[in-house]
């Protein structure tokens, strides 16, 4: 959708997930309004903001730098930009100050000096606002919301994916205190002085990729770990985090099982971790709760589970496994239906044009036959009509044969799709228990 500034004024655009600022307004509150049209309740995707910028214009470049880094309009702590903008007097006053730059500054040095002064004027207020917003966010939002918003300060500066975060924790576990860590940007220094970092912007370090040799060695080591049955005491009280569902589980005991479920076919492979949890009061824990519990600090106590306990958690696991396989079946069914629907449309398109050409040729054949039987025709006219009729009959036969060939091709394609579908739904299921533990939340 291409729109004027009117699109930023009270229209809900949560069905859009990308904003392209063709012209970047000098008024930061106008920029915030544009983002806010898409970043609304009901938005299912991360909102991506693309800004067109005249890099050769020093003022435009510095305005963008101010909006991005100082006021964090395009990245940063969720919900903070509204509050931070409150420290900028009014957007109109700010815009007037940018106009002054165009009027007064004639050199790069003058522009830099003016913007440095502008930064300094708001620096303390902006930093204080950011701290207040972060504090408010942590104190009032539940952990389930906080996790989804990705709002820790280090992740604001260095966004890392879920798997990279797990890799970081695995690195900390195996290397322990033997290496030096820089938590603020997920970097560490090896014994040989080599620096690795998950921060893709660091140029003085090797990017710590999941596929790197160091990471793969750690992952393989983790896979080979023996996880004997044990009891874990998870500490939630000291976290200061609000999570209603976890608070209801405090002082309760239960069982938790993690398994890897792999479903193989000749076409594809599905691999998923299944989290199964149950309390002594027979309360079943969903996937999200199990993951959060396992993320808490814990201490380990030696423990051997009884057959009754193992049977209890196994029933929960089988229920989750059945549910996951049913979901996979429904997904495959919907995918197959969509693919065959697309195939039918393609087949109809291929045949339709030939049918129309054949229909036109047969109509022309009937008209020529009728015309050749009229009274009063000369012998040369009769022969001419018959020549045309013979020609159109050959065309009809050619189109009919071509249609039969197309139909045969389509049926061959359909047989191939059916065969691939059979291979897809003929699956082999592999199950691997990662660990089973007894737990208590304190």
Briefly, what is this?
The chain has helices at 28-38, 58-70, 80-85, 91-104, 108-140, 143-149, 153-157, 162-175, 213-223, 244-247, 287-295, 307-372, 379-425, and strands at 18-21, 48-51, 180-182, 187-189, 195-197, 206-207, 230-234, 253-264, 269-279, 284-285, 298-302, 428-441.
Molecular structure report:
- The protein is an alpha/beta fold and 442 residues long.
- The chain is built from 13 helices and 12 strands.
- Strands 10-9-8-12-7-11 form a 6-stranded mixed beta sheet, sandwiched between helices. A 4-stranded mixed beta sheet has the order 3-4-5-6, with no helix packed on it.
- β3 and β4 form a beta hairpin.
- It starts with 17 loop residues before the first strand and ends with a strand.
Features:
single chain; alpha/beta; six-stranded mixed β-sheet; four-stranded mixed β-sheet; 54% helix; 15% strand
Q: What is the fold's blueprint, element by element?
A:
Layout: E1 18-21, H1 28-38, E2 48-51, H2 58-70, H3 80-85, H4 91-104, H5 108-140, H6 143-149, H7 153-157, H8 162-175, E3 180-182, E4 187-189, E5 195-197, E6 206-207, H9 213-223, E7 230-234, H10 244-247, E8 253-264, E9 269-279, E10 284-285, H11 287-295, E11 298-302, H12 307-372, H13 379-425, E12 428-441
Parallel strand pairs: 1-2, 5-6, 7-12
Antiparallel strand pairs: 3-4, 4-5, 7-11, 8-9, 8-12, 9-10
Helix pairs in contact: 2-5, 8-9, 12-13
Order of helices and strands: EHEHHHHHHHEEEEHEHEEEHEHHE
Largest sheet: 6 strands, mixed
Strand line-up in the sheet with most strands:
10-9-8-12-7-11
Per the principal axes of the C-alpha atoms, what is the gross shape? flat
Relative helix content: 40-55%
The overall strand count is: 12
Low-confidence stretches: 76-87, 150-159
N-to-C span: 52 Å
Strand content: 15-25%
Given the helix and strand composition, which structural class is it? alpha/beta
- Overall average pLDDT: 79
Q: Assembly state here?
A: single chain
Number of helices, counting only DSSP H or I runs of 4 residues or more: 13
Radius of gyration: 34 Å
């Amino acid at each position: 959708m291409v729109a004027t500034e009117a699109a930023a004024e009270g229209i809900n655009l949560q069905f859009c997930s990308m904003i392209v600022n063709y012209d970047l307004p000098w008024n930061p509150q106008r920029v915030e309004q544009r983002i806010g049209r898409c970043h609304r309740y009901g938005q299912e995707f991360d909102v991506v903001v693309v800004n067109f910028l005249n890099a050769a214009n020093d003022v435009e470049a510095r305005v963008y730098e101010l909006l991005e880094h100082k006021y964090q309009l395009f990245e940063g702590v969720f919900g903070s930009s509204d509050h931070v903008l409150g420290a900028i007097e009014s957007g109109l006053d700010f815009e007037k100050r940018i106009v002054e730059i165009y009027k007064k500054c004639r050199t790069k040095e003058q522009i830099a000096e003016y913007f440095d002064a502008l930064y300094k004027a708001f620096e303390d207020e902006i930093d204080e606002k950011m701290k207040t917003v972060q504090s408010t966010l942590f104190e009032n939002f539940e952990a389930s919301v906080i996790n989804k918003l990705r709002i820790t300060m280090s992740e604001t500066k260095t966004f890392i994916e879920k798997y990279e975060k797990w890799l970081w924790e695995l690195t900390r576990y195996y290397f322990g205190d033997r290496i030096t860590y820089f938590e603020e940007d997920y970097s560490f220094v090896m014994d040989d002085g080599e620096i690795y970092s998950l921060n893709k912007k660091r140029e003085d370090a090797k990017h710590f990729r999941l596929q790197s040799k160091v990471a793969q060695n750690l992952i393989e080591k983790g896979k080979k770990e023996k996880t004997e049955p044990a009891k874990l005491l998870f500490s939630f009280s000291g976290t200061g985090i609000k999570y209603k569902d976890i608070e209801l589980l405090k002082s309760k005991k239960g069982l938790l099982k993690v398994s890897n479920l792999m479903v193989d076919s000749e076409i594809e492979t599905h691999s998923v971790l299944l989290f199964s949890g149950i309390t002594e009061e027979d309360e079943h824990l969903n996937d999200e709760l199990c993951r959060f519990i396992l993320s808490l600090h814990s201490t380990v106590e030696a423990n051997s589970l009884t057959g009754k306990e193992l049977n209890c958690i196994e029933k929960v696991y089988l229920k989750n496994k059945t549910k996951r396989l049913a979901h996979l079946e429904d997904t495959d069914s919907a995918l197959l239906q969509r693919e065959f629907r697309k195939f039918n449309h393609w087949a109809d398109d291929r045949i339709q044009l030939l049918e129309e050409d054949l229909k036109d040729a047969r109509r022309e054949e009937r008209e020529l036959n009728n015309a050749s039987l009229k009274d009063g025709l000369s012998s040369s006219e009769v022969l001419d009509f018959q020549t045309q009729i013979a020609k159109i009959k050959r065309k009809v036969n050619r189109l009919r044969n071509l249609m039969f060939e197309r139909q045969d091709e389509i049926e061959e394609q359909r047989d191939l799709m059916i065969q691939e579908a059979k291979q897809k739904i003929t699956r082999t299921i592999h199950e691997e228990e990662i660990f089973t533990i007894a737990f208590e939340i304190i």
